[in-house]
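Appendix B. Chain record.
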Amino acid sequence: MTLDLLKGKILTTLTKLTIPIVLTAMMQMAYSLVDMIWIGKLGANSVAAVGVAGMFTWLSSGLVMMPRVGGQVKVGHALGRHDLKQARIYCSSAFQMAIAFAGIFGIVMITMSSFFIGLFHLNNVSTVKDAIIYLQVTCGLVIFSFLNQVITGLLNASGDSHTPFVANSIGLVLNLVFDPILIFGVGIFPRLNVLGAALATVGAQLFVFLLFIIMLKGKKALFQHLTLLQIHARKIYIDILKIGFPLALQSMLFSICSMIVARFVAGYGDGAVAAQKIGSQVEAISWNMADGFEASINSFIAQNYGAKQYQRVNKGYRVMMTIVLIWGLICTGLLIMIPGPIFKIFLDDPQVLPLGISYLTILGYSQLFMTAEITTSGAFSGLGNSVAPSFISIVLTTARIPMILILTQYIGLNGIWWAISLSSIFKGIISVSWFTLYKRKALA
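C-alpha cells predicted for this chain:
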C-alpha cells in the first residue's frame, strides 16, 4: 500500500505512514533483542561477548546510513517533483553504494576481528572467543542487512511503509524460531551457543532480502528498470553523500565513542559490560521507536519540500513532535519507576542486577530528549540539511568522554551513565531549538 504524502489530512497520513515504519524499526531492533534474551540464558560472559561484538554491528549501521538516508531523501525530493526517472537513478546509485560499502566492511571485520575485540581487554578467554565468532559472522555477512535497510528507506520515501513491515515481520518470526534451535541445539541441529545466535540473525536477514525481491518484482514502479551495472554521473553520488555522509559520520563517531565508553565500563568488570549491554537493549525500544519517527517525518517532509508545500511541512513536524512527546514521557516513566522488573526479563544475576537498575533509572531521565533529537534529525534531513543535526550530535556525544573522566572520580560507574544521559538531554534541547529557527528561513 503506497500513500500519497502530498495530499490528505496530515495526522491521518502520518499515522498510516509511521505505524508500519515504527513497527519495522522495532523488528530490526528485535533481532538483537531476541538474541540477547536467549544468550542471557548462557550467562553474563556470553552477554558481554555479544555486547562487545554488537558495537561493530552498530558501527556498520552508521556506514549504511550514507546510501540509505541519502538515497531516501533524494528519491523523496524527486518523487515530490513527479520525476520518476531521476528517482530511479538515485535508487540504483544507493544500491551500488550499499553493496560496495558492505563488501569492504565485511572483509575488514573478518580479517581484523581479533584486533578489534582485543581493544576491549575482556577478562575471560571464552568471552573473547565468542565475541570474535559473533563479529565475524554478523559483520562479515552484513550485506543482507545493508540491502534490506536501503530497500526499506527507498520504500518509505515512496510512501510505502507496509511492505518493509511485512518482510521484516516474517524475518523476525524466522529468527525467533531458529535462535533457540541453533543456540541450544534441537534434534539434528548441534548446540552452537553464541555462533548459533549469529547464524540465526544473518539467516533471517538473508530471508528478508529474498522476500523483498519476490514482493517487489514487477509491482513497484520505483524499482523497475534499475541500472545497477551502470556508473551514473558523479553528481548523483555526490548528492547522496551530501545528505548521507554527515549522518553516517555522526553515527559512526557515536559508535566509536560508545566503544570508548564501553572500554571505561569494562574497567568495572564483565558484569558492568553485561549490565550496559542489556540496559542499552532495553533503551533500544525507545530509540528504535524514535528511528521510526525519524524515517517517517523524513519521508513526509522530503516529498512535500520537493513539491514546495511548505505549510504542510510545518504542520507535519508539529504533529510528529506531539506524538514524540507522548512516547518520550511513557519511556521515561517506565524506566524510572520499574527498572528492576524490566531488567530481569533479560538477566536475573544478583551481581549484575543492581548495575542494570542504576543504568535504566539514570538513562530514563533522557528518553524524551533523545527521541526529540532523533526525530528532529529526520526533519532536518528531509529539508536537505544533515549537517546541523550531525554537528550537534558529534559535539555532544564526544563530550561524553571528558564528562566520564570527571564524573567517575566522584560517583564511579554511575558517572558513566550520567554522562550518557546528560549529553542526550542537551542534544534534544539544542536540536529542537535549532530546527525551529532553521525552518523559518528554509521555508520562507
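Further analysis of this model is presented in Appendix C.
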